[in-house]
Amino acid sequence: MTVGPDRLDPTDARLLLALREDPRASVMALSQRLGLARNTVQTRLARLDAAGVLAPFDRRVRPEALGYRLGAYATVQVAQRSLTDVSDALAEIPEVLEVTGLSGAADLLVQVAAVDADDLWRITEQVLAIPGVQRLDTALAMRRFVEYRTAPLLDRAAD
């Protein structure tokens, strides 16, 4: 298997960099570009996908294109032993884009997309109504200075 417990090999990294540059590239085009056999590329892509290395497609869709122009991050404090129930309830709110467990004072970091301030208010009220949620602090996302990226890490792994 090309994917180790916590690392990609240089060939996998080069393959992912090529996909980053041309996400619609065919297996044949990738094999020619990388100087690998078509079956090698196909097998590696299948293994990367099965190992969960490739993020879901919806990671590429911007909420703004769907009318959700306001982004926010909320830190949530949760009652002890309610983390799973609260996380499951958050997953049922369509505007919740991502939930990450944290160490420190807050238990969860929740990324939210909203149409406007009134919509964000509605969403925060929904979150506060979840049994086990003790406190919610919200910060508006004003501007993205660095886009989500993995290319610098892939470059390092490819060398």
Brief digest:
This is Lrp/AsnC family transcriptional regulator. The chain has 159 residues and is of the alpha+beta class.
Give the helix level as a range of percent: 25-40%
Strands side by side in the biggest sheet:
2-3-1-4
Shape: elongated
What is the number of strand segments? 4
Number of domains: 2
User: How confident is the prediction overall: mean pLDDT?
Assistant: 92
Give the CATH level 1 class of the largest domain.
Answer: Alpha Beta
- Give the number of helices: 6
Supply the CATH architecture of the largest domain.
2-Layer Sandwich
The CATH topology of the largest domain corresponds to: Alpha-Beta Plaits
β-sheet strand percentage: 15-25%
Keywords: DNA-binding, Transcription, Transcription regulation
Organism: Blastococcus goldschmidtiae
Protein name: Lrp/AsnC family transcriptional regulator
InterPro entries: ArsR-like_HTH (IPR011991), AsnC-type_HTH_dom (IPR000485), Dimeric_a/b-barrel (IPR011008), Tscrpt_reg_AsnC-like (IPR019888), Tscrpt_reg_AsnC/Lrp_C (IPR019887), WH-like_DNA-bd_sf (IPR036388), WH_DNA-bd_sf (IPR036390)
